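REQUEST ID: PR-0412
SUBMITTED BY: lab tech R.K.
PRIORITY: routine
TASK: structure prediction, single protein chain
INPUT:
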Amino acid sequence: MKPPRFDYLAPRTLDETLAHLHDHGDQAKILAGGQSLIPMLNFRLAHPGVVVDVNRLTELAYVRQHDGGVAVGALTRQHAVERSELIRARVPVVAEACRFIGHAPIRHRGTFGGNLAHADPASELPAVMVALEAEMAVASRAGSRAVPAGQFFTGPLTTALRPGEMLTEIRIPAPPSRTGGAFVEMARRAGDFALVGVAALITFDGAGKCERVRIALCGVGPTPIRARAAEDALTGQAPTATALAAAADRAAAATSPPSDVHGSAEFRKKLARHFARQAIAAAVERSGGR
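STATUS: complete
OUTPUT:
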């Protein structure tokens, strides 16, 4: 199919980009990697009046240290994040999740910020950012603001971004010491959208008990789901098989998966329970907590 008609703008600076977004409001759509937008245009699922191509904004392509953690420019290619030594050293769960995004050519073109701004409920990175309690830096002609990842995703393909705003940077805090992290998912084939994905981070105290627990799931609700009841069930507990199973049960109970041609809601809940248990166990193992 052919895309609908639209005007095309290719700014070279962030200020120029924000001016275009301000002028065109909700008629403007940002083109970054294009791995999601182009198919949506071709299938006429998106009808922007103006497409603003931001690929010339090299100032927003970086991975660097930030306040003990990592800051990732919104236009950094997913492949660069996956291969970043800084990411692997400070937040390795991000690199692990990146490997599940499509195929290598997709990751070479797709951008880190574009993936998050697209807000696909089955996408890996939104769930990982929620689990890591990352912060989204957003800019507009009126100024800038920071949005916690847990408040950024508001519905399927919907975020807290307002007309005229652009995601510019993702700030990821480094987990505390004695923390293990893992991301696992189930897809019909490698590179397909996840039927369910789970990000887990477990921090242990000196006595070998779970001091801090963060669990988020994708593919089983309209947004990434933070499994707070599962976190509470595991916090303060030794990582026994019983404790891990109870946390996985609560993680599955927090989901509201759809039924579709790929599986029923009941089937997805069973997957959520299984893979939550797997992700939690892997995070425990990597932390050295037992």
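NOTES: The longest strand covers residues 194-204.
REVIEWED BY: pending
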